[in-house]
Amino acid sequence: MRQLYIMRHGKAEDPDFTKRDFDRNLVNRGQEDAKQIGKALWNSFDDREKAAIREANSRVKLISSTANRAIQTAELVAKVFEFPSDRIQREIEIYEAYHLDILKVINRVPDEVETVFIFGHNPGLSMLVNYLTDQHVDLKTANAAHLILDEKFTFAELSEQTATLQHVFE
């Protein structure tokens, strides 16, 4: 069974004219929220899933937008998972992306991968969950949606209404 976790970055600095949006960092609350969601996710995994994540093997993939706040969120969650941060795949295509552009990144995931974590931004992430599951979800900062793919689908075949929403971690 393939699983997809779609996580919005934690609370970031307010936008202003002194820094590009791309360069905004997590604030303290955003860092703490990311760690808490990471712990909640970790506690939801069974022993086999925990072992696969810790091994950072080819069955698990963490993919993040390259924007500061998203990669910082991914790194904080990876630390909770004991997953090496240098194994986080960074994808510029996720930044300010339309949901179908994020889906294209997921569709490139190799068939041997069983679990994928995506770290990025709204509105694209919420729209992606809605598109894949036909369930209305509005991911707040540091929220994560857990989706299960229909057994007959790989990540390459993931498309509209081919996943089931299991849980939203808030």
TrEMBL record:
SMART domains in the record: PGAM (SM00855)
Pfam families in alphabetical order: His_Phos_1 (PF00300)
Keywords, comma-separated and alphabetical: Hydrolase
Superkingdom: Bacteria
Gene3D superfamilies in alphabetical order: Phosphoglycerate mutase-like
PANTHER family named among the record's database cross-references: PHOSPHOGLYCERATE MUTASE-RELATED, SLL1549 PROTEIN
Protein name: SixA phosphatase family protein
Organism: Sphingobacterium corticis
